[in-house]
Design goal:
Radius of gyration: 26 Å
CATH class of the largest domain: Alpha Beta
Number of strands: 20
Largest sheet: 7 strands, mixed
Structural class: alpha+beta
Shape: globular
Strand content: 15-25%
Bound molecules: oxidized coenzyme A
CATH superfamily of the largest domain: Chloramphenicol acetyltransferase-like domain
Helix content: 25-40%
CATH topology of the largest domain: Chloramphenicol Acetyltransferase
Number of helices: 11
C-alpha cells in the first residue's frame, strides 16, 4: 500500500520554503523520522514521517513553497490495507499527531497524479512539539514581513515568465500595469501569485519612489565584488538569518533607540545562588543568574507598566498589558531565536530555571512552536555566559524595551570608607524613546538593580 505524507497544519504558514530534504527515493524511513525542513517568515519547521516504509516518490524539491495539505512524499508501507479513519486517528495521536496521511490504491494513484495537491482530501491534526520545530528570530519577526524571502527572488530571476505560478486574471492585471511577475513574490498556496500580491508590490514600489522623491529613502550600500581583492567563498544565508536582518533593520530604522547602563551589585545573590547549587543538582535543575533576573524584571515591570507597553493606532494610543510574558534571546547554530516565558510574575525561581533550560533546549533543537515565540512584553538578551563588558541591544519592536546582560565581574566598589570587592552585573537597557523617556528608563533600571542587589525585595 502506498501512503502520501502531506504537510500538516504549520501554524497557518502559506508558501513555506523547503530548505532541507533528509530523505531520498529508496530510503527506508521510520515513524517520526524527519523528512524535510520548511521555513516560513516566522519559523522553520521539521516535518516528520507518520508512517514507516520505503520512500517511492519524492514530491518536493529544495525551494518549493509548501502549505498545509501539500504532498511531501509517497511511502510504500507493509500494511495490508488502508487504515480506517479511527485507526488513522489513533495511530496519529500516539505516534505523531501532526502529519496528515492519505492512502492510495493502485488505480487511485494514477488518478491522483493528475490532481493538484490542494485537491487531495486530507486529515490534519493539531501540531505538537514533535512536529512543529521552530527556529525563530525575535518575536517581532512576524506578521508584518511584507513578502517572501530574498532567496525566492533570486530563484525567480533564473526563471522565465512561464515558470511563474499565477492565474490568467492575475497575469492579465500584471500585463495591464506593466508588472514583471518574476519580481513578485506569491503569498498563495505553493507560492501562487494573488491579486493582493500585485497590489502589495505596487504599493511598495510607490512608497519607494515617493521616498526617493522626497529624499527620505535609505541610501543603498553598493554591492562590492570582493573577489577582485582576493579569494572569497559565498554562503547562502538561512531564511531565519535573512528575516532577523529584516526585522533588526525595521526596528533600528523605526525606533529611536537610547541605551542606559547600570551595574547591579549581585554579590549577595551570587552567594545565595551558589549555596543552592547542590539543591539544584538534587532537583535535576541548574541555577544561573537568569531566573533571578527574569523574576526581578517581572517585579520591576509591574511597578513601571509603560516599560511593557506597545504603541498602537499610529502612535496615538499606548497598549498596557496586564500579563507578563518575557522573551529570552537564545543563541543557536541556526541563528537568533526568542522563546517567550509566560506569566513570569506568577512563577517561582525553580520553575523559571527549569523553563529557561527547556526553552533554550527546544530552541537549539528547533522544537519550539510558533505560539512559544509570541506574546512577549519585554525581552532579555544575556551574553553573560559568553563575555563582554556591555552592549546595546536592539528593541524587539513592538515591545518598547529590552535588557542586555553582560558578564558579572568582581569590581572595587566604594562603600564610603573603602573599596570593597563586589560582584557587579552590567545591565544595558535599550528603549523606544517615542514611548519611554530617560526618567522612566532611569527609574526602572535603578529599581531593577536594587531588586537584584537584594533579592528579598522581590517578595515584598
Ligand atoms: N555573568 C557571569 N556568568 C554568567 C552570567 C553573567 N551575567 N550569566 C550566566 N553566567 C554563567 C552561568 O552561571 C553558567 O555558569 P555555570 O555553568 O558555572 O553555572 C554559564 O555562564 C553559562 O550560562 P548559560 O548561558 O548556559 O545559561 P543562562 O541561564 O545564563 O542563559 C541563555 C541561557 C539561553 C540565555 C543563553 O544560553 C544564551 O543563549 N545566551 C545568548 C543570547 C544571545 O545570543 N543574545 C544576543 C542576542 S542579539 O544578537
Amino acid at each position: 500500500m502506498s501512503v502520501t505524507v502531506i504537510v500538516p497544519d504549520i501554524g497557518g504558514a502559506e508558501g513555506a520554503e523547503v530548505v532541507e530534504i533528509f530523505v531520498a527515493v529508496g530510503d527506508v524511513i521510520e515513524v517520526e523520522q524527519s523528512l524535510i525542513v520548511v521555513e516560513s517568515d516566522k519559523a522553520s519547521m521539521e516535518i516528520p514521517a507518520t508512517v514507516a516504509g520505503k520512500v517511492i516518490e519524492l514530491r518536493v524539491a529544495l525551494g518549493d513553497a509548501l502549505s498545509e495539505g501539500d504532498a511531501v512524499l509517497v511511502v510504500e508501507t507493509e500494511a495490508a490495507e488502508a487504515p480506517s479513519e479511527d485507526e488513522a486517528n489513533s495511530a496519529d495521536e500516539s505516534a505523531n499527531p501532526a502529519v496528515a496521511v492519505e492512502t492510495h490504491s493502485a488505480e487511485g494513484a494514477a488518478k491522483e497524479e493528475s490532481q493538484d495537491a490542494s485537491d487531495v482530501a486530507s486529515k490534519t491534526l493539531e501540531p505538537t512539539d514533535t512536529q512543529t520545530v521552530v527556529e525563530q528570530s525575535a518575536s517581532a519577526i512576524s506578521s508584518s514581513v511584507p513578502s517572501g524571502p530574498a532567496a525566492s527572488k533570486n530563484a525567480a530571476q533564473t526563471k522565465t515568465d512561464a515558470d511563474v505560478y499565477a492565474g490568467p486574471a492575475v497575469r492579465k492585471l500584471a500585463r495591464e500595469f506593466g508588472i514583471d511577475l518574476l519580481e513578485v513574490v506569491g503569498s498563495g498556496r505553493r507560492g501562487r501569485i494573488l491579486k493582493e500580491d500585485l497590489q502589495a508590490f505596487t504599493r511598495e514600489n510607490l512608497r519607494k519612489s515617493s521616498n526617493a522623491a522626497t529624499g527620505t529613502a535609505v541610501p543603498l550600500v553598493p554591492e562590492v565584488d570582493f573577489s577582485q581583492f582576493g579569494e572569497v567563498t559565498i554562503e547562502q544565508r538561512s531564511r531565519l538569518d535573512q528575516m532577523t536582518a529584516t526585522n533588526m533593520s525595521r526596528s533600528w530604522l523605526n525606533v529611536p533607540h537610547v541605551t542606559q547602563f547600570e551595574g547591579a551589585d549581585i554579590t549577595d545573590l551570587e552567594d545565595f545562588r551558589k549555596s543552592m547549587k547542590q539543591e539544584a543538582e538534587r532537583l535535576g535543575n541548574k541555577l544561573t543568574p537568569m531566573p533571578f533576573v527574569l523574576k526581578a524584571c517581572a517585579v520591576a515591570l509591574a511597578a513601571h507598566p509603560k516599560m511593557k507597553s506597545s504603541l498602537a493606532a499610529a502612535g496615538k494610543e499606548l497598549v498596557y498589558k496586564q500579563y507578563c510574558h518575557i522573551g529570552m534571546a537564545v543563541d543557536t547554530p541556526a541563528g537568533l531565536v526568542v522563546p517567550v516565558i509566560r506569566d513570569v510574575d506568577k512563577k517561582g525561581i525553580w520553575q523559571l530555571a527549569e523553563e529557561i533550560r527547556d526553552m533554550a533546549g527546544r530552541a537549539r533543537e528547533k522544537k519550539l512552536t510558533p505560539a512559544q515565540m509570541q506574546g512577549g512584553v519585554f525581552t532579555i538578551s544575556s551574553l553573560g555566559g559568553i563575555g563582554g563588558e556591555g552592549f546595546t541591544p536592539i528593541v524587539n519592536t513592538p515591545e518598547v524595551a529590552i535588557l542586555g546582560l553582560s558578564r558579572a565581574e568582581i569590581k572595587p566598589v566604594w562603600d564610603g570608607e573603602s573599596f570593597q570587592p563586589r560582584q557587579v552585573l552590567p545591565l544595558s537597557l535599550s528603549y523606544d524613546h517615542r514611548v519611554v523617556n530617560g526618567g522612566d528608563a532611569g527609574r526602572f533600571l535603578t529599581d531593577l538593580a536594587a531588586l537584584l542587589s537584594d533579592v528579598r525585595r522581590i517578595i515584598l
